[in-house]
Amino acid sequence: MTNKQKSVVAVIDYGMGNLHSVAKALEHVAGENTQVVITSNPEIIDAADRVLLPGVGAIRDCIGEMYKAGLVPSIRKAMAEKPFLAICVGIQSLMSHSKENDGVDCLNHFQGNALFFGETHKDYDGSKLKVPHMGWNQVSQTIKHPLWKDIPDNERFYFVHSFYVVPENQDEVAGTCDYGLNFCVALAKDNVFAVQFHPEKSHKYGLQLYKNFINWDGKP
Amino acid sequence: MGLAKRIIPCLDVDNGRVVKGVQFLDIRDAGDPVEVAKRYNEQGADEITFLDITASSDDRATTVHMVEAIASEVFIPLTVGGGIRTCDDIRRMLNAGADKVGINTAAVFNPEFVREAAQRFGSQCIVVAIDAKKVSQDGEEDKWEIFTHGGRKPTGLDAVEWAKKMVQFGAGEILLTSMDRDGTKNGFDLGVTRAISEAVHVPVIASGGVGNLNHLVDGVKEGKADAVLAASIFHFGEYSIQEAKEKMQDSGIEMRL
Questions:
Q1: Which of B124, B167, B174 to mutate to test binding with chain A, by most A CBs within 10 Å of its CB?
Q2: Which residues of chain A have a CB within 8 Å of the CB of B172?
Q3: Can you list the positions of beta strands (E) in B84-224?
Q4: CA A214/CA A85 separation, integer angstroms
Q5: Are A178 and B6 within 8 A, CB to CB?
Q6: B148, β-bridge pairs
Q7: How many helices (H) and strands (E) does chain A have?
Q8: Other CB atoms closer than 10 Å to residue A56's CB: what's the count?
Q9: How far apart are CA A108 and CA B111, in angstroms?
């Protein structure tokens, strides 16, 4: 009927992470004009219309595998030119540095560090807070953004992490969360959006965020 | 405002069917795992735990396919336990769509496996499952011991010390089942739940013995659990997840509704 090619979302496979869940969630909201591809092929990533960087696991392995698989140039290229979404350890990998695994230099797309909550993390009243920060917490949207479309402010998303990002530039913060301290859980800069929580595990509003990503033209 | 406590329905799966036994005997059929998982997802479950209790470890492929099928339709966290013995087992389950794996017996026989798994995959996806039984007598100081083989074999390991050790080795969460209470509907063993939750810095899921919604409330308020796991009260339609969450919220517990 139409000659228009399908729009491609490349989910980067660097040997870590819950790619099945991410891809299935994207497919669930994609519609027939969008194709979801799990790939470790730089050419496919370069040719894709939008790119998703998932992440689960320890940061040293994540960054190490990205370099080993020769994916870093394609990741940088994608971040320079098309809609790009990073998830969980993905957001940490975009910072300058992470304190995990005795310190690991990361991709430095956002200036700042990933820090450890600590094993003796406490709530404001002094009571013990468990680490990892695991479960459903409320995300406060600090800016308007196309990826927050149709998602209520302070909606709950699913988190599992022991490290959190501290960007140097507050203008890049798109969302925050409260867990003994107020910390950044979403970053936005031009065509790049990154979240600490797992949209693919956050039920309907997580799926909504993926839908927003698929519909996003990359403009803030 | 803050992190919600979680309700986790548990699917004990034997030969491709959800089952629930009383103290692991008298197994009752509760349906197709994928259908059951979808129903809990719709009811607002915060996570789902899938325990492969197939006695013979004949074909793990069945479990992998089932996990894939659930993960294709259920967009909440999924923990898979039962028969996880190697990093390859973990990799296979994560690739199939599991978010966390539960390690039980393998941790008892080879604690280093937990360390290796946490280093490779990150602590956030390593749940160490602990089956504990009270071994102290009335009048003695409370003491609980780790048991394996469905609660039949004692190990001599103190449950609280074991939990601390597993966290040191990299466990990101503890799934604590009271073998005295499992299947009884008499409520969690709040003593061991609280002792372990206060002893470790990672989240603790209370399991074993839920018979009514007050038990869930007690697990969080008295047992200091971060999440509560139950099976039969949900499987056979006595309560919905939603009812359970409302009850907990009404009792002053922060929930995702």
A1: B124
A2: 132, 134, 160, 162
A3: 100-103, 126-134, 144-148, 153-158, 173-178, 204-207
A4: 10
A5: no
A6: B153
A7: 6, 13
A8: 25
A9: 37
DSSP A71: -
Tell me whether residue A44 is exposed, middle or buried, using C-beta atoms within 10 angstroms of its C-beta: 0 to 12, 13 to 18, 19 or more.
Answer: middle
> What is the pairing mode between strands A95-98 and A104-105?
antiparallel
CB-CB contact of B48 with B70 (8 Å): yes
User: B122–A89: do the CB atoms touch at under 8 Å?
Assistant: yes
Q: Give the type of residue at A65.
A: E
Rounded (5°) CA angle B222-B223-B225: 125
Please calculate the CA angle B128-B133-B136 and round it to the nearest 5 degrees.
Answer: 135
* Contact predicate B84/B102, CB 8 Å: yes
| SS3 state of residue A69 | coil
Report how far residue A82's alpha carbon sits from residue A49's, in angstroms, rounded to the nearest whole number. Answer: 7
Which chain A residues have any C-beta within 8 angstroms of a chain B C-beta?
17-21, 24-25, 28, 56-58, 61, 89, 119-121, 123, 128, 130-138, 154, 156, 158-162, 178-179, 198, 200-204, 206-207
* pTM of the predicted model as reported, rounded to 2 decimal places: 0.93
Q: What is the ipTM of this complex?
A: 0.91
The residue of B1, B6, B75 whose CB has the most chain A CBs within 10 angstroms, and thus the best one to mutate to test that interface, is B75
Shortest Cα distance, chain A CAs vs residue B190, angstroms: 18
> Residue-wise pLDDT tens for chain A (220 aa)?
444 689 999 999 987 666 778 898 999 999 899 999 999 999 999 999 999 999 767 788 889 999 999 999 999 999 999 999 999 999 999 999 999 989 999 999 999 999 999 988 999 999 999 999 999 999 999 999 999 999 999 999 999 999 999 999 999 999 999 999 999 999 999 999 999 999 999 999 999 999 999 999 999 8
Residue in the block written with tokens 């749940």:
B127
Q: How far apart are CA A165 and CA A54, in angstroms?
A: 16
Identified catalytic residue from A62, A88, A106, A177: A88
CB B93 within 8 A of CB B84: yes
Q: Which residues of B184-208 are buried (b: 16+ CB within 10 A; e: fewer)?
A: eeebbbbbbbbbbbeebbbbbbbbb
Residue B17 pairs in a beta bridge with B14
Answer for the pair A194, A94: CB distance below 8 angstroms, yes or no: yes
Give the H or E element holding residue A11.
strand A7-12
The whole-angstrom separation of Cα B225 and Cα B230 is: 13
